[in-house]
TrEMBL record:
Gene Ontology MF terms: ferrochelatase activity; heme binding; metal ion binding; peroxidase activity
Catalytic activity: heme b + 2 H(+) = protoporphyrin IX + Fe(2+)
Source organism of the structure: Streptomyces poonensis
Protein name in UniProt: Deferrochelatase
Cofactor(s) needed by this chain: heme b
Amino acid sequence: MPDRSTPEVPAPEAGNTQKNTAATTAPADASPQRGPEKAGGASPSRLVSRRRLLGTAGATGLALGAAGGAAGYAAAPSPEKVAPLTSLGTGRVAFHVKHQPGITTPLQAAGHFVAFDLTAGSGRKEAVALLRRWSDTARRLMAGEAAAQDDTDVARDAGPSSLTVTFGFGHSFFARTGLEKQRPDALDPLPDFSSDHLDKKRSNGDLWVQIGAHDALVAFHALRAIQKDAGDAARVRWQMNGFNRSPGATARPMTARNLMGQLDGTRNPKPSDTDFDERIFVPASGDPAWMANGSYVVVRRIRMLLDDWEKLSLKEQEDVMGRKKSTGAPLTGGGETTEPDLEKTDADGKLIIPINAHSRITRPDQNGGAAMLRRSFSFHDGFDADGVPDAGLLFIAWQADPLRGFVPVQRKLDRGDALSAFIRHEASGLFAVPGGAAEGEYVGQQLLEG
């Protein structure tokens, strides 16, 4: 659900150059050279065309690619420093990093989320081979290269477009692979919430993959490659598609809006916060050891009842949220990042921010300091026979421990959030996302071979 205390990472404007350990830029000639064409691979002419695209972007394109996870928090650049949209394709995110890409990477315009179940007869051996294939494919595609086998050419002529591919393990994966002793306590199933209307077929799963990019074709190309790589080892359990505002669509970098028209990204933890790593990532000395530098992600499909929401007056909508719709500022005054005055009353002695306002209930200081890194996408899956939109939020929330992050906030929302009347939680999942793979390794290697 749109969570004011833990909102989305805002998508950065092109040209933003702050750095982060999870997103780095390499010039075009840093991509590894590939040899002669292999059966099912890409032709040399294709390699030249994609590398030429990266190499001709110039300094502007490289500046865009340097944008890191903290980029969305930087001050707005002056107009003359904003890179043109034509440079978007040059953005490149590194695969071999401390934390997997796609966690602190600036929010991309297009996203896919897919869960897999291992097939009957597949176990630890098949999972090892699968994660090797997936990691190799992710590394190649994120560098702007073709897939190793049977590339579909969907991304021909495109650069990496800030593509990220992130992998996680569900609770059921460990029993299927004989690794129950390695299953983290933090991966215990989430409790039931009164607002849940969950479809089990679209929830959980053995394996989870998140894909994001600034180009929809590049994102789909990666989705198709990952699905094909699964082969006979795993089958798709569920898949969801999301979108966000494209970088460059606004005159200056700003917090994204969700489908309710609300600014959704005001109070996200920032990488510059002294306790950011403590809240979001498992420490290097964490337990179990294979989760060092990893994180836990809660994934929820939250349908917005837009017909009901849009019947409310502007004031009613703002009272539900506790913030101004136009600026995101608290109703008690100031700007978007101003701390709300929860005790302030009007001339009649009534609280200006209602007692059940979403922003009041979700504030960290109202939930024992609980915080999550929100990195959500909007979705729209068409209209029903009555013209009601199937649309809302793919809620993606990262934390070092869901029992200290997501669970206490959601329990409090269950007890009286004004927004609850306008949303419906329809699917849910919790996944353990290990740290990034070192050079020469694949994601999850310490778990599967440790």
